[in-house]
Amino acid sequence: MANIFGFFGSILGYVLWAAFYFLKDFGLSIVVFTIVIRLILFPFTVKQQKSMAGTMRLQRKQKELQEKYANNKVKLQEEMNKLYEKEGVKPMGGCLTMIIPLLVMLGIFYAVAYPLTNTLHLNSDTVNSAVSYMNTIPGYTITTNATYQQIELIRVFPSIMNTETIQGLFSAADCQQIIDFANGFNMMGINLLTIPKDMGIFSWYSLIPVLCFVSYVGSQLVMQRINKAQMAQQQGCLKVMLYVMPLFTAYIAYTVPAAVGFYWICSSVIAFIQSLIIAKFFTPVHFTAKEEARHIALMELNEAKVPYVYSPVEQKTSSKSNGNGKKKKK
Prior knowledge:
InterPro entries: YidC/ALB3/OXA1/COX18 (IPR001708), YidC/Oxa/ALB_C (IPR028055), YidC_ALB_C (IPR047196). The protein is mainly α. The protein is 78% helix and 1% strand. A two-stranded antiparallel ribbon has the order 1-2. α12 runs parallel beside α15 (258-281). The longest helix has 32 residues, at 26-57. The radius of gyration is 31 Å and the shape is elongated. The protein starts with a helix and ends with a helix.
């Protein structure tokens, strides 16, 4: 699976590199990069909301069918399929719209976490050899998650660039490119290559894991409000994970280079803004009301197509009756 996500990360890395090429600031590049990708994925999010609305709209009818055919599973499935076809709802329609954004989001993470191979697109074997060499140097041995070793290599690269091993691995052009890239990690006085844990809990860098936690929880709370029906159906263990994950994310952000935590903050904040837009214009309730209005309009249109046939039979009968009445009066 890592190879698949790495492949997506390598593709998305070109977008990140393009942003860095113009901005020369890795932090701002992450912001622009995340916004662009979120805009690309926005139609999938809207489609997912629409699919959810369709499922919610059919819940009452589904329940009736389940009660009616409780002892006949085959017949129940047939009637369910007829219901989906009649209402134009695809029960699995939202799966693809969930999988694609997930793959892209993981690809974004791999583009940020592996900047040398996925953003600069340097040879992976060469980069891995440089990381292995770095770990043999006293004082540079990585004690954090091995996932972020490339970011650590960028941080220490200016100090080990002139060693015989590094000179043998990278060309002069590659070394200069890495140095220029490393300089782009300084954003408004913050070095995104710094690990907050190394600076102490009372340093300004500790704000990064705190903001990771706050932004993550805020985004999830908004999503809860948007998808109340869906969240109500979640099992207790999933609800616990909803609150445990932000704490886990904050801990990881405290022990890895600040660039990773900064990416998570940007992603959560942009997801939060996207959630507000969805809550305003693209909620399941909105789609349900829109679909019901469309259904009523379609029924009226179909009724209008039925030709009106004038039948005076009833009127003739009534006239004869009136005529008979007049004769009786005479």
